[in-house]
Amino acid sequence: MIILKAGILAFRELIKRLVDVILSSGRPAGALPTIQVVNPSEVRHDLPTQIVVSGCGFTSTRSVRFGHSLARYTVNSDGQLTATTPTVPTAGPVPLTVTTNRGSATGEFTFT
What residues form DSSP beta bridges with 72? Predict the structure, then answer.
């Protein structure tokens, strides 16, 4: 009897998830990512440095890039993440891109 009840509950959960997928718009729930503030907004190009990115929609972050270089990151909250800048060969401006399940946001960043 316990196995039958567990099977029925699992089947109900499966049907609920199937209905959610069918009725959803195809995009995961949550806010589109937005970058509002990067602190600091410039760092040395030859020294990995932690920066804080503030905005919204960061919960489902999949990657953080400085130009073409991937960065290590930690999502602190939906509105904030901490990233470690990669070392890059030359100084100059690069796009800072946060990619989530909902889309991407790009801000400006400068290596000195």
Answer: 84
